[in-house]
Structure formats: structure tokens, C-alpha cells
Design a protein that fits this description.
Blueprint (H helix, E strand, L loop, with lengths): L2 H8 L1 H21 L11 E6 L5 E2 L3 E5 L3 E6 L8 E7 L7 E12 L8 E9 L2 H20 L9
Antiparallel strand pairs: 1-2, 1-5, 3-4, 4-7, 5-6, 6-7
């Protein structure tokens, strides 16, 4: 979508604000050595291991980006293991299904730290889900940057 069309839809001031955010995020990206800037949002995620369809319990999202998700969980994961994730974007009851791969997983340390932290990257999003994922992710980013509160959807 072109910048002029976005200005028509959202207004020029918002586009400049979003551009400024992305420019500062891209500077951070160089420092963090990441492919995409992360949003520290806690969204609902369900998951299962691809190899045996075992459900992953108690996934707690730490951050999400356009290229992957960082989360905590009770079960250890192995590097390069494949997962099927169901991402529930704020304000929407139908999840987006994503095939992903574990990039790293480590045990938490400390007396009250139980479980594991992991980072995954998206491998595949079905063609019919890809456009929906992009729309919902962009909507979530705009709401995050503008400080808009989203009502939780009842399950």
C-alpha cells in the first residue's frame, strides 16, 4: 500500500509518527542485531509440537515481532524443533496458525524462576492466513504505538 493512500486513510500526522517510530526502531535493530523490532506485548498463544502433536501448556508471550516470538513455558524445547502456534491477536477470537521453528531455549535461573524461555521464528504461514496475519499484526502495532486499549474477547 502506498504512502499517499495511507495518508488518505490515517492522516498525514499519524504516518509521520509511525515513520519516526520505525526509524528509531530500525536504529535499535542495528544495536540489537535483530531482523525485526520487538513489541513487548503479552498476547495469548497456544502451541503444539509438530512431531507428536503434544500440546504446550502455559505459554506466556514476552514479545512479538514480524519475524518471531519470545515466550516463556514450562516444557523445554530443542533448537530447530518445529511448532504449530495459534496466535490470538488482541480483540480477535479466531487465531492465526503459524508453523514455526525454535531458535533458542534456555532454563531460567534463580530461586523463584521456574521453566524455560524460548525464541522462535516463523517458518510458514498459509497463504490464506498471511494477509490476515499482516493486517492483525499492523493493527496491533498501531494500537500499541498510539496507546489504544483493546477489549479482551471472551473465549
Amino acid at each position: 500500500m502506498g504512502e499517499e493512500r495511507l495518508k488518505g486513510i490515517f492522516g498525514g500526522g499519524l504516518i509521520l509518527k509511525v515513520k519516526k517510530i520505525f526509524l528509531s526502531a530500525s536504529r535499535k535493530k542495528i544495536l540489537e542485531r535483530r531482523k525485526a523490532s520487538r513489541l513487548g506485548l503479552h498476547i495469548r498463544i497456544r502451541g503444539e509440537l509438530s512431531r507428536n502433536r503434544e500440546r504446550l501448556r502455559d505459554i506466556v508471550c514476552r514479545d512479538i515481532s514480524g519475524s518471531g516470538i519470545g515466550f516463556g513455558l514450562r516444557t523445554p524445547l530443542h533448537k530447530d524443533e518445529r511448532l504449530k502456534l495459534f496466535i490470538y491477536f488482541p480483540g480477535h477470537s479466531r487465531p492465526v496458525r503459524v508453523i514455526s521453528q525454535v531458535v533458542w531455549c534456555c532454563k531460567r535461573t534463580g530461586k523463584r524462576q521456574h521453566g524455560f524461555d524460548a525464541g522462535i521464528r516463523y517458518l510458514r504461514i498459509a497463504a490464506k492466513e498471511r494477509q490476515r496475519f499482516l493486517f492483525l499484526f499492523c493493527e496491533m502495532m498501531l494500537n500499541y504505538f498510539l496507546g489504544v486499549k483493546i477489549k479482551k474477547v471472551r473465549r
